[in-house]
């Protein structure tokens, strides 16, 4: 079944009309005082047949095609030196495969946890950023989405507050962090075990601080968690919250830039322990359910994130992370440990300097307590086949080719091979194909 392709096309057509109008407002002065940008992305994704002996409430179904569309406007103003205020309304429509369920490393980060047939409007970002110069070499800042053009010093303090994505600041990677431009898989664009604070669309409210000093950056952030796991509504008073800390070091190897980031998170709120849910389920004869045993507790995790240019056209990246596997994940996905390695190749070598090829391999895992919970009928954020008699690691390979026929418009073909979807050796492997159309200014 294919969802509402005519509606998706209508959204894209609306953007093609609106973008040239908005572009006229773009201020290209230096420093920039007004920025207007926009983007539209449509992803059509399908999965073929695979071994499917049984299904649960959160299983991936074979032989289906779904589509998603998002249209975003980014408007920024500079009220004073170093200050930036950005607002980003967005129109969304569509569904992920199986309503964005069935795979912990879900194959489309363009698919939110909330799907709708009709286009709907959301305010995804409303943020203020203040940059305070602390000296050092001055460099140009190119204008872009959520960035006003101008200059900045090498040493600086950057404060961001409001509604934005934790991934706007933490766990970034130049080769694997943008589902509108590079990889699509959730556990490729972010570290899968990084249970970052977010509503069902991937955004939170909070504050972040970044201190740049030479080749080092220290980041810290405080964010609201959802009121309930994987929920649509965020806390407003940090009653349930996340603290993030990240250290980054930038370097050159044979003249090519690279970076290493180490990120840690601490979630504090009402979470359920898998063993408590298993004990209650065994006593009652009902499927295990962490919602029945939630109490105030802490869940923590950490990851390392590496990017390195090898040549002017080839870049490598890797991530590895873990989180406390005795407690349920809260706002991202059902991954307790993860590792990935990949590469991105620019097409200059075959005369297509704006084209790119990407390849990544990912291994996701969960704790034994987590496995027992799923086997006892429990469901998580994204996975839950009703039972899990033969658990295994979820292995994912993703490859894409991004073709840019003209500036500002990209066509991407994406393929993913998913072994043991939902950590279940009884199901899969799944072959997932996608076509992504993306335009922006």
Q: How would you concisely characterize the structure shown here?
A:
This protein is 10% helix and 47% strand.
Describe the structure.
The chain is mainly β and 441 residues long. The protein has one domain (5-23, 31-440): Carbohydrate-selective porin OprB (Porin, Beta Barrel). 10% of the residues lie in helices and 47% in strands. Strands 1-2-3-4-7-8-9-10-11-12-13-14-15-16-17-18 form a 16-stranded antiparallel β-barrel. A two-stranded antiparallel sheet has the order 5-6. Helix 3 runs parallel beside helix 4 (368-375). The longest helix has 19 residues, at 5-23. Mean pLDDT is 93; it is low at 14-29.
Please identify which CATH superfamily we are dealing with.
Carbohydrate-selective porin OprB
Helix and strand content put the structural class at mainly beta
**Strands of the largest sheet, in order across it?**
1-2-3-4-7-8-9-10-11-12-13-14-15-16-17-18
- CATH class designation: Mainly Beta
Number of strands: 18
Describe the sheet with the most strands. 16 strands, antiparallel, barrel
When the domains are counted, the total is 1
What is the share of helical residues? under 10%
How is this fold's topology laid out?
Elements: H1 5-23, E1 34-47, E2 64-77, E3 83-94, E4 116-133, E5 138-141, E6 150-153, E7 156-164, H2 186-189, E8 204-213, E9 216-224, E10 241-253, E11 256-271, H3 274-284, E12 295-309, E13 314-323, E14 337-347, E15 352-365, H4 368-375, E16 394-406, E17 409-419, E18 430-440
């Amino acid at each position: 079944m294919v969802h509402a392709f005519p509606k998706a096309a209508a959204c894209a057509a609306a953007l093609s009309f609106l973008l040239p109008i908005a572009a006229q407002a773009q201020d290209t002065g230096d420093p920039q005082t007004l920025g207007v940008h926009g983007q539209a992305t449509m992803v059509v994704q399908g999965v073929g047949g695979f071994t499917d002996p049984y299904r649960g409430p959160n299983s991936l179904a074979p032989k289906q095609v779904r589509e998603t569309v998002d249209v975003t406007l980014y408007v920024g103003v500079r009220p004073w030196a170093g200050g930036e205020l950005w607002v980003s309304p967005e129109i969304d429509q569509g569904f992920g495969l199986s309503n964005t369920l069935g795979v912990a490393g879900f194959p489309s980060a363009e698919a939110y946890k909330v799907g709708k047939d009709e286009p709907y409007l959301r305010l995804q970002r409303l943020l203020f950023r203040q940059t305070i110069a602390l000296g050092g070499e001055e460099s140009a800042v190119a204008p872009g989405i959520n960035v006003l053009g101008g200059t900045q010093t090498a040493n600086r303090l950057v404060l961001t507050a409001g509604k934005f994505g934790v991934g706007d600041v933490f766990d970034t990677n130049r080769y694997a962090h943008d589902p509108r431009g590079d990889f699509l898989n959730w556990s490729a664009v972010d570290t899968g075990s990084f249970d970052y604070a977010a509503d069902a669309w991937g955004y939170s409210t909070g504050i972040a601080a970044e201190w740049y000093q030479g080749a080092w950056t220290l980041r810290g952030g405080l964010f609201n968690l959802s009121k309930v796991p994987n929920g649509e509504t965020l806390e407003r008073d940090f009653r349930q919250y996340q603290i993030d800390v990240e250290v980054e070091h930038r370097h050159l190897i044979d003249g090519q830039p690279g970076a290493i980031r180490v990120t840690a998170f601490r979630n504090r709120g009402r979470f359920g322990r898998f063993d408590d849910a298993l004990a209650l389920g065994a006593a009652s004869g009902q499927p295990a359910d962490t919602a029945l045993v939630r109490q105030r507790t802490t869940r923590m995790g950490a990851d390392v994130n590496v990017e390195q240019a090898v040549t002017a056209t080839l870049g490598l990246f890797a991530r590895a992370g873990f989180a406390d596997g005795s407690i349920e994940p809260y706002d991202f996905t059902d991954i307790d440990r993860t590792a990935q390695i990949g590469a991105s190749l620019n097409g200059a070598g075959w005369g297509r300097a704006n084209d790119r090829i990407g390849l990544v391999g990912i291994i996701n895992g969960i704790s034994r307590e987590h496995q027992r919970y799923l086997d006892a009928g429990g469901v998580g954020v994204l996975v839950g086949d009703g039972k899990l008699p033969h658990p295994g690691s979820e292995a994912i390979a993703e490859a894409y080719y991004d073709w840019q026929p003209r500036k500002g418009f990209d066509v991407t073909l994406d393929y993913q091979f998913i072994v043991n979807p939902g950590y279940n050796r009884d199901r899969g492997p799944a072959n997932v194909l996608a076509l992504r159309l993306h335009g922006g200014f």
